[in-house]
Design goal:
This protein is mainly alpha-helical. The chain has four helices and no strands. The protein is elongated, with a radius of gyration of 17 Å.
C-alpha cells in the first residue's frame, strides 16, 4: 500500500459507513434496537478510521490539493457539493459524538431529537465523501 491508495481506501470506508448508517436507520425504524446499536457503533468506527486515513493522507502529501479535472457545469456542481460536504463534515465531527453521548446516558428522548438531525447529515457526508473520490479520481481526474 502506498499514499496513492489512501483515497480509494477512504472512499470504501465512507461507503461502508453509509451502508451501516442505512441499515441502522432501518433497524431502529423496525424496532431492532440491538442491530441499530451495532450498526451505529460500526458507522462511528468506520468514520473514525476514515478520519485517521484522511488526516494521514493530507500529512503524507504535505497538504497538496488534488485538482478537479472537470469543466463547465460539472465543475460548479462538484465545488458546490465539496463545499457542503466539508462544512457538514465539520458539523458531524461534533454532532455524532453528542448524539452518541445521549444514547450512552440512556436519554432516549434527547438522543432521538438529535438523531433526527445527525443521521441525515451524517448520511449526506458519507455519500458525498464517496462522490468526491469518484469525481476527483475516477470520473474527472486532472490531467497529469
Amino acid at each position: 500500500m502506498n499514499v496513492q491508495d489512501i483515497p480509494a481506501l477512504n472512499a470504501c470506508l465512507n461507503a461502508a459507513a453509509t451502508l451501516a448508517i442505512t441499515v441502522g436507520l432501518v433497524a431502529i425504524k423496525t424496532g431492532h434496537k440491538e442491530l441499530h446499536r451495532k450498526c451505529m457503533l460500526t458507522s462511528a468506527g468506520l468514520s473514525a478510521v476514515f478520519l485517521i486515513g484522511y488526516v494521514a493522507h493530507k500529512i503524507l502529501v504535505r497538504g497538496v490539493h488534488t485538482p478537479f479535472g472537470g469543466d463547465g457545469m460539472i465543475k460548479g456542481f462538484y465545488y458546490g457539493m465539496l463545499f457542503t460536504h466539508v462544512v457538514l463534515a465539520m458539523a458531524i465531527a461534533w454532532l455524532v459524538p453528542k448524539t452518541f453521548y445521549f444514547a450512552i446516558k440512556g436519554d432516549w428522548e434527547t438522543h432521538r431529537r438529535w438523531a433526527k438531525w445527525t443521521m441525515p447529515i451524517w448520511l449526506y457526508v458519507s455519500v458525498t465523501g464517496v462522490l468526491v473520490y469518484l469525481f476527483l479520481y475516477q470520473w474527472w481526474p486532472a490531467s497529469a
